[in-house]
UniProtKB/TrEMBL annotation:
It comes from the Eukaryota. GO terms for cellular component: actin filament; cytoplasm; microtubule plus-end; stress fiber. Residues 26-154 form the Calponin-homology (CH) domain. It comes from Python bivittatus. The gene is GAS2L1. This is GAS2-like protein 1. Pfam families: CH. GO terms for molecular function: actin filament binding; cytoskeletal anchor activity; microtubule binding. One of its GO terms (biological process) is microtubule bundle formation. Coiled coil: none annotated.
Length: 231
């Protein structure tokens, strides 16, 4: 395994301007490349991102690693795992002498795609097709799918790309603020006394922000004009 400091180098990138969807896709590929290099000691770069993965071998290997870590999580946290979707089906693939674009490469990719849909339940809007990788014609959906796979794996304790780590930190902060707000509201009602005409609506929640999914965000970029995204 490569030095974990590789992926942490992304933390030094402060606020980066993205003027187009192409620039944002570049940033996501950069993040995923660092992540894959850390996990598997690969040599993935933004420029060869799809070339390195086009045999499907590394994708299938990663899928089976997610299965393994998910099983370990289930064994050590049975209560939490009972409320989660645990991937279990092993992905069958061929690793030796796989020629890009060959039937074997296509079969590897197809098996990975099937695993994403059936075992992780990834929605079609974030999925790619075999030809998207083989022919390199739908880079956006391929990148979005890998990010979603990384997000699912992080729920079981697998190392995630910096983009996903930052999302999780934001979600945790949001939960903390909601809990804090509810406690303050309940305390205020108690201070008013039992005869207070104010009632607490348990179903009401404070929405701190409207987070778009990755596909919506990328689709939004071309018409949004210049803006900055924390990355």
């Amino acid at each position: 395994m490569a030095d974990p400091s590789n992926i942490q180098s992304a933390a030094s990138k402060s606020i980066r301007p993205f003027r187009s969807s192409e620039e944002y896709l570049y940033a996501m590929k950069e993040d995923l490349a660092e992540w894959l290099n850390t996990l598997y000691d690969l040599d993935v770069q933004v420029e060869n991102f799809m070339d390195v993965l086009e045999t499907g071998y590394d994708l299938c290997q990663h899928a089976n690693n997610v299965n393994r870590i998910a099983l370990e999580f289930q064994q050590s946290n049975p209560e939490a795992a009972s409320r989660m979707r645990i991937p279990q089906k092993e992905v069958i693939f061929q690793a030796k002498n796989v020629v890009p674009g060959s039937f074997i490469a296509r079969d590897n990719i197809s098996n990975f795609i099937q695993w994403c849909r059936q075992e992780l339940g990834i929605q079609d809007v974030l999925m790619f097709e075999t030809n998207d990788l083989v022919l390199k014609k739908n880079e956006k959906n391929f990148v979005l799918c890998l990010l979603e796979v990384a997000r699912k794996g992080s729920k079981f304790g697998m190392l995630a790309p910096m983009l996903i780590q930052m999302e999780e930190e934001i979600e945790e902060e949001m939960r903390d603020q909601v809990v804090c707000g509810e406690l303050k509201t309940e305390q205020a009602i108690q201070d008013l006394g039992p005869k207070s005409p104010i009632y607490l609506n348990k179903t009401q929640r404070i929405t701190l922000c409207d987070l778009k999914n990755l596909d919506e965000l990328v689709s939004f970029l071309p018409s949004a004009g210049p803006f900055c995204l924390i990355y």
